[in-house]
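lol so apparently i was supposed to do this last week
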Amino acid sequence: MKIGILTSGGDCPGLNAVIRSVVFKGTRIYGHEFVGFKDGWRGVVEGDIVDLPLVAVRGIAKQGGTILGTSRTNPFEGPKGGPENIKAMMAEHGIDALIAIGGEGTLAAAQRLHNAGIRMVGVPKTIDNDLDSTDYTFGFDTAVQIATDALDRLRTTGDSHNRCMVAEVMGRHVGWIALHSGMAAGAHAILIPERKVSFEQIAEWVRDTQDRGRAPLVVVAEGFVPEGEESPHSHRGLDAFGRPRLGGIGDIVAAEIQERTGLETRATVLGHIQRGGTPTGFDRVLATRFGIAAVDMVTNGQWGHMAALKGTSIEPVEFANALGNLKTVPTERYDEAAILFG
Ligand code: F6P
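anyway here it is w/ 6-O-phosphono-beta-D-fructofuranose bound
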């Protein structure tokens, strides 16, 4: 078979490890041929293709980013978008099937294309860890490690200057990165989209920390909604899939803390640093196993499925069962962490 691979949506540590294992197993064990689409769905709709022989993927598992490039292009938009145009492009290049490596937006598009008759298999990727039906996505562990290292560093400035340090982390509408990095770094308050908290409560945690002679560290997820507000802070418009671009809540939280406690407070937005650089060992292994499973699914004709981590096993899950629900932080996980606040 001739198989096309694309990486789409935000870049994420581990994408190259997936590409490598797909091509290695597919070429060595099954005798498939591979091509890559440049810049995600943009390359698919425009037929922008590169050959992916074994030699092109050697040694790339440890590289961050994606050798294929990525974009947030919507494959249903534009004059060359939509399933019929994509089928024609595949026929022209002799491509039998696609492997789409991406997050919720990418996989939802992959599902629609599969429903329209395109042979499609998915691999879940996102630092946000918000995809239901897989225990973890690759990229999350790396993002948590980067955020934890950053929080440890912010603490030294907080301790030295006796300031409150606020760190804003990514995660879109779920608080997994904030929860895990905040727990790992021993933050004095963690604010996540799943739990509304008042500014007064946050100030109280900060005062309690200060009263114990500690410099408060507050981690806030970009999607956090303070009590009394309806939606997360967003002032940068919508992305190609109509989703709000989040960010900026860290500054608001810091200003409220300073105002209410009188303690000098600084905000830092970690931003895209969380998606950059080399993947952790955990993410390299997970991404490699996802890639192996994806090429098995293609070979077995399990169209419309994505690879998922269930416990320690990798299993195929139908798009229909995998998408639609966000995997949010359960109440008990937040309550468990909150015991240590203040
Ligand atoms: O989904 C991954 C993610 O990094 C989110 O955490 C964040 O909200 C978004 O992508 C940022 O997107 P962009 O790179 O397009 O600004």
